[in-house]
Write a structure and sequence with these properties.
Helix-turn-helix domain-containing protein, mainly alpha, 4 helices, HTH_AraC, about 80% helix, transcription regulation, globular, Arc Repressor Mutant, subunit A, sequence-specific DNA binding
Length: about 70
């Protein structure tokens, strides 16, 4: 079961970074009916809330693009 949860969080992280889907939509697609429980599980796995993770990824991508 831990492997499945890790896979779900990696998939969710990818979606947060590469799509504009809402956290609620991503949570639902990964089997969470409650966005709060998803956010808690995501933060436990990744160290950041889903919203903060997306924000950090976007800033990182903007700075990577600016240096080209």
């Amino acid at each position: 079961m831990p492997c499945l949860k890790a896979h779900k969080m990696e998939s969710a992280a990818y979606m947060l970074e590469h799509t504009e889907e809402s956290v609620i939509e991503i949570a639902s697609k990964h089997g969470y009916e409650n966005a709060s429980k998803f956010a808690s599980a995501f933060k436990s796995a990744k160290g950041l809330s889903p919203v903060k993770y997306r924000s950090v990824c976007k800033r990182r991508n903007i700075s990577d693009t600016a240096s080209i």
